[in-house]
Amino acid sequence: GENVEQHPSTLSVQEGDSAVIKCTYSDSASNYFPWYKQELGKGPQLIIDIRSNVGEKKDQRIAVTLNKTAKHFSLHITETQPEDSAVYFCAAKGGSYIPTFGRGTSLIVHP
Amino acid sequence: DAGVTQSPTHLIKTRGQQVTLRCSPKSGHDTVSWYQQALGQGPQFIFQYYEEEERQRGNFPDRFSGHQFPNYSSELNVNALLLGDSALYLCASSSRQGAPYNEQFFGPGTRLTVL
């Protein structure tokens, strides 16, 4: 089955800095890669996603890149704000239509 | 729209007991998936229900079972609870149409503690 590795497990930045979270996947059949943000006491919320036929997607301060050849994808957050502090999960979805999640990255943005 | 709702919020049980968790999907959604999220881990897929039938199942023992009702709401049952079943149980709903790119909406989860 699919295996998703996510790094780093913890990321601490100053407000205004950029943050990058990286994930790798194992199943070449995976074709959809969502990213979720989970705040304390809440369920994961989709923040951005990318399909395998696209190399990059941007939504305001958030962007995601995908390298199908290397089987890795990354989340980029620019101009970080304290409210960006949360746990971020990457996921990969393929033929089974069920996403496999990474272990999460705890992002801490210091004011 | 209330989004995905789950009950109860928290639950404490002892080993060997049985538990039932409940989920109401987002309005317009017909598919419900259940996930187990251990502390410090990502959600792990338990199973998915569509048209009142279990359609896909993750690597979980038969102690984990479920049900989907005609109104699309769902229950997760866990029998013979073990200490290792302590986790946050998440319900996610989606619309079958548009798979595999259809967005899943997660509920806030039920925190289960097994003593």
Short description:
Chain A is mainly β and 111 residues long. Chain A is 0% helix and 55% strand. In chain B, the strands form 2 sheets. In chain B, strands 2, 4, 5, 6, 9, 10 and 11 form a 7-stranded mixed beta sheet that branches. Chain B has a 4-stranded antiparallel beta sheet with strand order 1-3-8-7, with no helix packed on it.
What does this structure look like?
The complex is a heterodimer of chains A (111) and B (115). Chain A is mainly β and 111 residues long. Chain A contains no helices and eleven strands. Chain A has strands at residues 4-7, 10-14, 19-25, 32-38, 45-51, 56-59, 62-67, 72-77, 86-92, 100-101, 105-110. In chain A, a hairpin with a 4-residue loop joins β7 (62-67) and β8. The relative contact order of chain A is 0.34. With 115 residues, chain B is mostly beta strands. Chain B contains no helices and eleven strands. Chain B has strands at residues 5-7, 10-13, 19-24, 31-37, 44-50, 53-57, 64-68, 74-78, 87-94, 105-106, 110-114. Chain B is globular. At the A-B interface, β4, β5 and β10 of A face β5 and β10 of B.
Kindly list the characteristics that best describe this protein.
heterodimer; A: 111 residues; mainly beta; six-stranded mixed beta sheet; globular; B: seven-stranded mixed beta sheet; four-stranded antiparallel beta sheet; 50% strand
Task: Tell me which protein chains meet in the greatest interface and how many residues each side has.
Answer: A-B, 27 and 23 residues
Q: In what range is the share of β-strand residues of chain A?
A: over 45%
Radius of gyration of chain B: 13 Å
Query: What general outline of chain B do the C-alpha atoms trace?
Result: globular
**Biggest sheet of chain B: strands, sense, closure?**
7 strands, mixed
- Summarize the amount of helix of chain B as a percent range: under 10%
The parts of chain B where pLDDT drops under 50 for at least 5 residues are none
- How many H/I helices of chain A? 0
Sheet of most strands of chain A? 6 strands, mixed
**Quaternary structure type:** heterodimer
As residue ranges, the low-confidence spans of chain A are none
